[in-house]
């Protein structure tokens, strides 16, 4: 059993980099197996935070969950990932995603490429870059001409893949997947068979240990409701047998949340990543983080 945490535990707009690093240290001390940084268009840079976290921690796996590949060029992303890997003494894992066209295209103002084709080409180039190969690649969405390759860098690559075509590409070209809001049923029926054997399946799951279940449920409805407007999440929620993202939040005491986490492992997840742990209060977050360490220590 490997249970990790997203950092920071509250929106990036309300937290400073020193505070993020304090939380990274706290998560490691609490017993998290891994810590993960998300990327927002107007937030902190997730890869920079990962590199900095590598300098203030010593044990945990450090990853991004996730960095959208649109509109980044793979050379730029690979350089940042290499930096984070070296800064964390090889503890870094690169989590990437396609992002949502209706959300990102208006923000960046550049055409959104055909997603699965772009993912395949992007992963092909990343694999070659991390293998230390000379890259001379011309695709329909990605073009790279590198005369001198950088040294090989053993950076594992995960993709937030949830659709059948994206899962197939991920299974062929990456090390695993990071699905968010995929229920145990969706993990078992779609994600695990879709990606194929021998790959990591890290289920990102909203979870809050709390004594105020009703208040947290209300906040979850408010804060996660927009996922219902994104086609990829509409599909994964339907596959999971739920109507809204808030239904998937694990809310309750330690025993209730721990039982919910175990259902993901029973469904075939290799790891679970707890998110939204500060949905209500800092005390709820601390209780959730302590539970994370207890689950990792007990192995069950």
TrEMBL record:
Gene3D superfamilies: Luciferase-like domain. Keywords: Oxidoreductase. Coiled coil: none annotated. InterPro entries: F420-G6PD/mer, Lucif-like_OxRdtase_MSMEG_4879, Luciferase-like_dom, Luciferase-like_sf. This is F420-dependent oxidoreductase, MSMEG_4879 family. Pfam families: Bac_luciferase. One of its GO terms (molecular function) is oxidoreductase activity, acting on paired donors, with incorporation or reduction of molecular oxygen. The keyword Oxidoreductase applies. Signal peptide: none annotated. Transmembrane segments: none annotated. Residues 8-270 form the Luciferase-like domain. It comes from Amycolatopsis rubida. Its EC number is 1.-.-.-.
């Amino acid at each position: 059993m490997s249970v990790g945490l997203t950092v920071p535990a509250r929106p990036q707009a309300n937290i400073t980099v020193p505070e993020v690093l304090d939380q990274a240290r706290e998560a490691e001390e609490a017993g998290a197996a891994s810590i993960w940084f998300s990327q927002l268009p107007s937030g902190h840079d997730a890869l920079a935070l990962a590199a900095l976290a590598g300098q203030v921690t010593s044990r945990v796996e450090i990853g991004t969950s996730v960095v959208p590949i649109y509109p980044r060029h793979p050379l730029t992303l690979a350089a940042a990932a290499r930096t984070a890997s070296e800064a964390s003494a090889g503890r870094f894992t690169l989590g990437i995603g396609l992002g949502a066209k209706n959300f990102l295209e208006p923000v960046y103002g550049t055409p959104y490429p055909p997603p699965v084709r772009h993912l395949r080409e992007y992963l092909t180039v990343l694999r070659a870059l991390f293998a230390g190969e000379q890259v001379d690649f011309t695709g329909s969405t990605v073009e790279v001409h590198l005369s001198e390759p950088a040294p090989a860098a053993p950076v594992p690559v995960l993709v937030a893949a949830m659709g059948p075509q994206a899962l197939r590409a991920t299974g062929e070209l990456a090390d695993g997947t990071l699905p968010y809001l995929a229920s145990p049923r969706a993990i078992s029926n779609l994600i695990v068979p879709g990606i194929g054997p021998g790959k990591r399946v890290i289920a990102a799951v909203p979870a809050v240990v709390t004594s105020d279940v009703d208040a947290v449920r209300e906040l979850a409805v408010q804060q996660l409701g927009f996922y219902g407007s994104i086609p990829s999440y509409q599909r994964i929620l339907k596959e999971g047998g739920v109507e809204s993202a808030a239904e998937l939040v694990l809310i309750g005491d330690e025993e209730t949340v721990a039982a919910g986490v175990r259902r993901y492992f029973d469904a075939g997840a290799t790891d679970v990543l707890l998110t939204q742990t500060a949905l209500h209060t800092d005390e709820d977050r601390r209780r959730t983080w302590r539970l994370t360490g207890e689950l990792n220590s007990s192995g069950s």
